[in-house]
Each structure stands twice: as C-alpha cells, then as structure tokens.
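Need tokens for this chain, all 136 residues.
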Amino acid sequence: MLFVCAKNGGKSQMAAALMRQIADDAVEVHSAGTAPGSALNALSAASVAEVGASMEGERPKPIDPALLRAVDRVVVIGDEAVVERAPGMAGTIETWTIDEPSTRGIEGKERMRLIRDQLAEKVRRLASQLVVPSKA
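Here are the structure tokens for all 136 residues:
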C-alpha cells in the first residue's frame, strides 16, 4: 500500500499513519510525494496523534520506482499529485478527492482535524477491503 500526495509532508503521511494504526501489521504501508517537501507538517502529525496514530520516524520522500511497481495499491490523495502507471506495475492506482477546508476559510488545527477525519473514514473503508478477519 502506497499513499501519495505532492509534498509527502501532510495528507499522504496522515493516511499512512492512520492505516498503520487501523490495519496494524496486516498491511505494509508506505507514503511518498511527487515533489517532496523538506519536513513533515507539524499540524498533520499532531492531528493524527490526537487519535492515537503516529507519523514518528517518517520524513518526506520521493516515489521509489521499485516500490511503485511492487505495491498492490496506490492511493493518490488530492488533485495536486498525479501518478502514472509504471511499466511492470502490479497494483492499481486510485485517487481520493479530499474536501479542502481552507477554501472555506478554515485553517490551523480545525483544518487538520477535518482532513484527518475524512482520511480516517476512507482508510477504514479501504482497510476493511484489504484485511480479512482471522477465523477464531
């Protein structure tokens, strides 16, 4: 599983942190950016920490072509990033449209919480498709 956004400092990192929290070790999770920034967004990290997820140890990074070919699914978050299919790519690419609260004048912690909650809903839905419950 590879989450991608433009800078890999906020939304894709948030989605990856939420997937790691929800799916635990059942899903191998990565994130990357099409034009990585220099640091994680502190408000993004704080927002996922509020719900028990963590971006600790992460940093913005570019898409690794070998990883892109190997993952089962690529989720592009927002419309700033575009990921093209790579030759030999095994997985699918889908794009998640995210409502951007800043277009309505919502900024800061409130903006991040709204984005986090949108991502969490989408991640939960995706995790339910990817993770098959074990039979006890």
